Amino acid sequence: MIKKHSLDHSFTVRELEIFDPELEEYTFPYWRQLFRSLGKEIEEKHSPFALTAMSGDGEKVGLLLGGLVGERQRRAVFLSVYVVPHWRGQGVGRALWAAAEEVAGKAGAEIMKVTYLLGKPSIPFLEKILERQEWSDPQLNMYVVGIDVKNIRNAPWMRKCRLPEDYEIILWRDLPQTAIDELIASDAEKPWIPPDLRPMDFFEHCHEESSLALKRQGKVRGWLITHLLNGVLRLSCGFVHPDLQRRGRMFALYAEAARRVEPLGLEEITATVPARHVGMAAFAQRWLKPFSQRFTESRLAVKKLREE
Ligand SMILES: CC(C)(COP(=O)(O)OP(=O)(O)OC[C@H]1O[C@@H](n2cnc3c(N)ncnc32)[C@H](O)[C@@H]1OP(=O)(O)O)[C@@H](O)C(=O)NCCC(=O)NCCS
């Protein structure tokens, strides 16, 4: 069903039912595959929805892409919003946002979330939309670090990362199932894996040649799961057992990943570090920031449609 929102300017907003190739450029490269799956039965983590705005003379002037996730799709994430430059400041962004909230609500979402990177000039306008639409005050969510590969090799901590003899780093894909079972059992016995840093949740579509497990005395006690996107290696999920932290073990994982991707000729590595993991955030500030070419933060805002 196509939904139209008539507004006081000469544009309409409607829900897109199938992928429109002309709008592909209106979302981030990362989300284009998901956008292409709109209207198709494809097994994706997100079930996409999209809203488009069209001017009175038929120009496609904006796109909002979102996804429904989780059990019974009770969470909606707003993944990108874009308005063509000559139509900005005329209410299109907010109209797309309002219509997307409606679509998400009708689809059964109980909570809506958005995360976005700071630094772009139009972020204040996005935050204005959030305020007007009565979303929560945006909070610091992640540090996002971009390091040129040639710099990471020169970082002094790359040299400090020799591991004691009872440690070993192997590719995650080479772990036998028994090792993964042991990891799960150890966490079940005495929880130590943050729920948002479970390596198994990140393994899908990962870069297998640089996704690593850190073993100590034969048991998995750390990991670094990576993704390769548009020639950039993203360090998506890294964690070391709390008892083994602050001893440079994470450096060893970074160094090994950098060494393994070197032959690929990549220029940049990015890492996302959740701000709520205080130790990791401090690590990023102290050890990654000085060697980074880009260091920014992402913010998170939410709006509840009904109690979860
Ligand atoms: C963010 C973006 C989608 C906003 O779209 P938009 O159509 O300009 O949004 P609106 O016209 O609904 O404006 C939203 C608010 O910002 C204000 N605003 C927008 N452009 C403005 C400008 N150039 N100067 C001052 N205020 C501006 C509007 O006045 C409005 O505030 P108000 O409710 O107090 O009047 C648009 O700027 C954009 O596409 N940016 C590039 C992509 C991007 O960065 N997306 C966000 C991350 S995914």
Task: Describe what you observe in this structure.
With 308 residues, the chain is of the alpha+beta class. The protein folds into 2 domains: 131 residues, Aminopeptidase, CATH 3.40.630.30; 154 residues, 3-Layer(aba) Sandwich (Aminopeptidase). 26% of the residues lie in helices and 33% in strands. The protein contains 8 helices and 13 strands. Strands 1-2-3-4-5-6-13-7-12-11-10-9-8 form a 13-stranded mixed β-sheet, with helices on both faces. Strand 11, helix 7 and strand 12 form a beta-alpha-beta unit. The longest helix is centred in the first third of the chain and has 15 residues. The radius of gyration is 21 Å and the shape is elongated. The two termini are 27 Å apart. Bound molecules: coenzyme A. Coenzyme A (COA) binds next to strand 5, helix 2 and helix 3.
Please give the structural blueprint.
Blueprint: E1 5-6, E2 11-16, H1 29-36, E3 47-55, E4 60-69, E5 75-83, H2 92-106, E6 111-117, H3 123-132, E7 139-148, H4 149-154, E8 167-171, H5 177-189, H6 199-202, E9 212-216, E10 219-229, E11 232-240, H7 249-261, E12 268-274, H8 278-288, E13 294-304
Parallel strand pairs: 5-6, 11-12
Antiparallel strand pairs: 1-2, 2-3, 3-4, 4-5, 6-13, 7-12, 7-13, 8-9, 9-10, 10-11
The chain binds coenzyme A.
The site of coenzyme A (COA) has 19 residues, from strand 5, helix 2 and helix 3.
